Amino acid sequence: MSRIITIACCLLVLTANAQKDKNLQPKPALMRLIDGNLRQAVNQYKVLMGKVPTGRLPKTWYANADRLETSNADWWTSGFYPGTLFQLYEFSHDTSLLAEAQRRLTLLEKEQYNKGTHDLGFMMYCSYGNGLRLLDSPRYKDILLTSARSLSTRFHPAVGCIKSWDSKPWHYPVIIDNMMNLELLFWATHVSGDSSFYKIAVTHANTTMRNHYRPDYSSFHVVDYDSVTGAIIAKKTAQGFADSSAWARGQSWGLYGYTMVYRSTHDQKYLDQARHIAHFLLTNPNLPADKIPYWDFNAPNIPYALRDASAAAVMASALIELSHYVQRDEARGYLDVAEKIIVNLSSNNYKAVVGSNGGFLLRHSVGHFPAHSEVDVPLTYADYYFVEAMLRYRELGQKGK
After folding, report:
1. Which of 209, 215, 252, 372 sits between 20 and 30 A of 5, alpha carbons compared?
2. pLDDT tens across 294-312, in order?
3. Contact at 8 Å (CB) between 318 and 368?
4. Sheet bearing 232-236, strands edge to edge
5. Of 21, 35, 119, 383, which residue is the catalytic one?
């Protein structure tokens, strides 16, 4: 009986969300802008395709040295390049993009067995997940399930989280970014029926919600736990300005992550969390008028601090999805911000001219400011979430995502 009630409740939620979606119509002028952006992105990624060496995957490009920086398949950003190619193929049906995506996937295949990283969601779901969605390959499904099993080995019940890093001086560090990797686990339960993936994902989400978030719903970057007792040792930052600051991309990861967890569970507390995070972001006095965040909301040299296009792209994509799950007025507010972000990222300030920027779409992202790494450069994940945000916007009025 309880199962019937649960199914009925889920159907009611989905029906209500579908009704809300009818109120979410894209703006024709922005649709034209997006279609133009995506056509240009297809051409730009053909430029990038010609630069990436065999056996490597792109990370960024340094204009002052005219140098493309690449990675092995075991680096956390490895899945974004093939993932973006799949998304652009979905838009354009250009088979050269599909062929390149499939070529680069072969580099990633061995990572399904990688138990030394928490980033298998980024690496495998953003690549093979998009491939599976478009091509329905049984082999891709098997690779993703193995990836989910590998990711699950990093979960410790005493802590209630998936461990992020194995390096010293940390004990059992968990970063807010890890919320993004839970999508692979939710998917694995959905396709396999194995609820252990689901239980790990919701436990991680609950522990993170309890320990990473401050009363104003800003997030710490890193929480370090005692691996035996699960007690909190410290709350720190690695990539932000200070332990107490709100590192911009981390806030966007949290917004996107809890929106995705709500989609996967239909549990109201996760929707409430996403809305609270959105409120922190959208009412923050240090959010610029163009809605492209500074690299840290508490950077010391605001308004002269560097912007982070990657944080903006993740936020826009998350807000578009979040708009499907709330009432019309609130949804309109989220979409207004997402639209402004897309428009401003489409300007000459951020979007590169085809043939420039090493083949990447967006300029002016910040990877790891304190380490002086990938500062004010294009980043592969900025492109991925920018394309995703534009594709999600094109679907408004058609279906929820």
Report:
1. 209
2. 999 999 999 999 999 999 9
3. no
4. 173-175, 222-225, 232-236
5. 119
Residue 97 neighbours by CB under 8 Å, 6+ apart: 42, 45, 46, 85, 86, 88, 89
Question: What b/e sequence results for 248-282 when a residue is b if at least 16 CB atoms lie within 10 Å of its CB, and e otherwise?
Answer: bbbbbbbbbbbbbbbbbbbeeebbebbbbbbebbb
Is residue 4 scored above 70 in pLDDT? no
pLDDT digits (tens, 9 = 90+) for 21-62: 446 889 999 999 999 999 999 999 999 999 999 999 999 999
Would you call 216 a catalytic residue per the annotation? no
119 is catalytic: yes
Catalytic residue among 94, 142, 166, 177: 177
pLDDT in tens, 222-280: 999 999 999 999 999 999 999 999 999 999 999 999 999 999 999 999 999 999 999 99
pTM of the model: 0.94
Q: Are strands 232-236 and 67-71 parallel, antiparallel or unpaired?
A: unpaired
